[in-house]
Amino acid sequence: GQQVMQIPQYQHVQEGEDFTTYCNSSTTLSNIQWYKQRPGGHPVFLIQLVKSGEVKKQKRLTFQFGEAKKNSSLHITATQTTDVGTYFCAGRGFQKLVFGTGTRLLVSP
Amino acid sequence: DAGVIQSPRHEVTEMGQEVTLRCKLISGHNSLFWYRQTMMRGLELLIYFNNNVPIDDSGMPEDRFSAKMPNASFSTLKIQPSEPRDSAVYFCASSLVNSYEQYFGPGTRLTVT
After folding, report:
1. N or C: which end of chain B has fewer CB within 10 A?
2. CA-CA distance, A30 to B37, in Å (whole number)?
């Protein structure tokens, strides 16, 4: 079945440093979504990418969908302590959405 | 809008007992998803419904798990009998069928002793 892996599993950065998480699917995706889950909270939708090579920005966050529509990345510029949490990609293949393994981000002040 | 509502927020039960988790969708949404989250297995889709009809239940672990949508705005996930390995946080999420963006509830933390 469809699998979605993310790397790294965990990253600890100092406030102000950049952060990137990578998402790779075993199959071609029709679209990919990104979610953020704060510690003790629930996943919250951030964005959806649909087109091959698409790049979208939300303030300090940059999301990219690969040309082959099998991978994606999320880059955070100049992290802040409010960025702490686990970031999940979720890829839609044939029908259902499959969540990635997640990258847990810790930001030290 | 109150968002997706789940109850109870926490449940502690003994092995062998029946557990029922409840979810109320956001008004107007017509897709409902049940997820289970553990440290070991991450976020797993158990089952989802479109317009009250189960579409994919391939993620339901075994026959001990069952999910229903008795009406368009409400769903239950039942575990009978429960086992310690069922301990997890269970989320439900709702969306519009053509929207894809899922809105998650706060989750139910289940502990089976």
Report:
1. N
2. 24
